[in-house]
Amino acid sequence: MSLAVNDIHFSYDGRRPVLDGLSFSLEDGTFNVMLGRNGAGKTTLFRIILGILKAQEGCVSVNGADLAGMGARERARRIAYIPQESHPSFSYSVLTTVLMGTSASISTLASPGVAEMKRAQDALERFSISHLAHRRVDSLSGGERQLVLCARALAQDAPLLLFDEPTSKLDWANQVHSLDNIKSLTSDGHTALVAMHDIVQALNWADNIILIKDGRTWAEGSPDKVADSDLLSGFYSTPIKVGRLDGQYICMPRH
C-alpha cells in the first residue's frame, strides 16, 4: 500500500509549528525509516495518520484515498500501529492480546474464529514468542511486550505498518531479529514506516530513509544517497563520518 504525506502542517499551541509543510511518499512493499532528533515531529505525524490528531493543513492518503474521510474501523483495515511502549491495563494473555489484532476483519458482534486464531498463532511464531502465548502481558519485560505488539500488528493483517522506535527496548539480538522480520514483511508485500534514532540500523535495513528536521523533509532517498558524511553532519549538527566495513554501513563521530 502506498502512502502520501502532502504538505502537512500542525501546531499544538497555534504558534510553534511541529510539522511545517512535511511531504514525502512511500512505495508499496518498502521498508522506510524516518530519522529525526527528539521533537522533530515523528510521533505527531503518526498520530495524524492514525486519526488521533487532525492536520491543520495538508492531507495524508493511502492508495490515493484521503485518510481524513475514513472511520476508525476502515483505517484499521489499512494501517497497523506498533507504539514505542505499552502499559497494559488488563491481565490478558499474550495470545488474547495478539488475537485482538484481528478484530478489524470481523463484524462487530462476532468472535474470532479458526482463521483469526491461525493468524494470531502465525504472528507469534514469526516473532519467535510462541512460548509466551499463555503468559500474562503485564508479567512480561518491556522488550517482550514490544514483540507482542509487533505480533498483534501482524495479526491485524493491515498492508501499512507504522513502527514507533520498535527496537528501543530490545537487546541487540532481538533488535536484529525484529528488523529482519520487518524486512521480511515488506518482502511479503507490506509497506513499513519506522521511526527510529539509530542511523546505522536505518542505513543497513531500510529501502528508503526520510530525514525530518524543523517539521519538514530535510532529505530523502536510498541508504546509498543518505550515507553521506557531510549530509548527515549537517542534519545532526554534529560531525559524523560514514563508512563501510564488510559491506555494512558504519557511523562514528568525526573529530
Using brief descriptors, characterize the structure shown.
28% strand; alpha/beta; 9 helices; globular; 12 strands; 33% helix; six-stranded mixed beta sheet; 255 residues; four-stranded antiparallel beta sheet
Characterize the structure shown.
With about 260 residues, the chain is α/β, with parallel strands linked by helices. About 35% of the residues lie in helices and about 30% in strands. The strands form three sheets. A six-stranded mixed sheet has the order 6-7-8-3-9-10, sandwiched between helices. Helix 4 (about 115-125) crosses helix 5. It is globular, with a radius of gyration of 19 Å.
**Based on helices, strands and strand pairing, what is the structural class?**
alpha/beta
Helix-strand string: EEEHEEHEHHHEHEHEEHHEE
Extract low-pLDDT stretches: none
Number of strands: 12
Oligomeric state of this protein:
single chain
Mean pLDDT: 89
The general outline is globular
The neighbouring-strand order within the major sheet is 6-7-8-3-9-10
* SS strand fraction: 25-35%
**Helical proportion, percent range:** 25-40%
Measured distance between first and last alpha carbons: 43 Å
Largest sheet: 6 strands, mixed
Taking all Cα atoms into account, the compactness measure Rg is 19 Å
Q: Helix tally?
A: 9
